[in-house]
Design a protein that fits this description.
- The structure is a single chain.
- By secondary structure, the protein is mostly beta strands.
- 10% of the residues lie in helices and 28% in strands.
- Strands 6, 9, 11, 12, 13, 15, 17 and 18 form an 8-stranded antiparallel β-sheet that branches. A 3-stranded antiparallel β-sheet has the order 10-16-14, with no helix packed on it. It has a two-stranded antiparallel sheet with strand order 1-5.
- Zinc ion binds next to strand 9.
Length: 257
């Protein structure tokens, strides 16, 4: 039985809201990182940068069918840090039928046909995920590198106590503060191997195993863990891969009451 693993977070590890939590190898400045854009394939990216796609796949721990996602960071020279793992709760260990796209297993558990030329389908992914903003506020830190370190999410500044809402329907697979640095953290698993994470909460209002609807209040924003001020550190992962949340969120934050 394949163990279903949540590569989480630890996601976070690389999150630069703080400087601790070093679960990933340090990244030297000489390592070039490419952020995947719509229309890219692993093959096209490797060709453009004069690398063999198999080499690029190895450096980024990608397996057949080499699916890459808009917003994903590809290490062109160095070797990407391996994702860390947190086991899912038991009820997620059995195969979940009908949840993954086309019933495929996720990368790494794999057995799917090689399709290195597969294109990134932004439209499809957007349709699949359809996230909404967890809070309304100013984005004070974007996805990508910050002070020379990767930042695997976005920071949204809000007053302490602001309701934090689920970005989409899903199951809470983590609600705790065991991960140093993230303070009170919630992770929700959505369909299609997608996860969202909400860190630094003043308090978590849902427990692991809870099924939540989009827009449901799951926490109160705060500054627990390593945070310089009250904000929501929001991450989106497709499988183990951190992706730019702004790609999956509506352009404008809608006003909530
Ligand atoms: Zn952050």
């Amino acid at each position: 039985m394949a163990l279903r693993l949540l590569y989480l977070l630890v996601l976070l590890a690389s999150s630069a809201c703080y400087k601790t939590v070093v679960l990933q190898a340090p990244v030297s400045k000489s390592e070039a990182i490419y952020q995947v854009r719509a229309g890219d394939t692993l093959y096209s990216v490797s060709k453009r940068h004069g690398t063999d796609y198999r080499t690029l796949a190895r450096r980024n721990h990608l397996h057949y069918p080499y699916t890459i996602y808009t917003g994903q960071r590809l290490y062109l020279r160095g070797v990407a840090p391996r994702p860390s793992y947190i086991p899912l709760p038991k009820r997620h260990k059995k195969p979940v039928r009908g949840r993954s796209v086309n019933g495929k297993k996720r990368p790494g558990h794999g057995v799917v046909k090689p399709r290195p030329h597969k294109r990134v389908s932004t439209a499809r992914h957007r349709r699949v995920v359809r996230l909404s903003w967890p809070v309304r506020g100013k984005v004070t830190s974007k996805f990508g590198r910050r002070h020379g370190r990767p930042h695997d999410g976005i920071d949204i500044s809000v007053p302490e106590g602001t309701p934090v809402r689920a970005a989409a329907e899903g199951d809470v697979v983590y609600s705790s503060r065991r991960l140093t640095g993230y303070g009170n953290l919630i992770i929700i698993r959505h369909t299609h191997d997608m996860f969202t994470a909400y860190a630094h909460n003043q308090s978590n209002l849902v427990r692991r195993g809870t099924h939540v609807k989009r827009g449901e209040i799951i926490a109160r924003a705060g500054r627990t863990g390593h945070a310089s001020g009250p904000h929501v550190h929001f991450e989106v992962r497709r499988g183990p891969t951190p992706v730019n949340p702004l790609v999956y969120l509506p352009k404008r934050q809608r006003k909530r009451r």
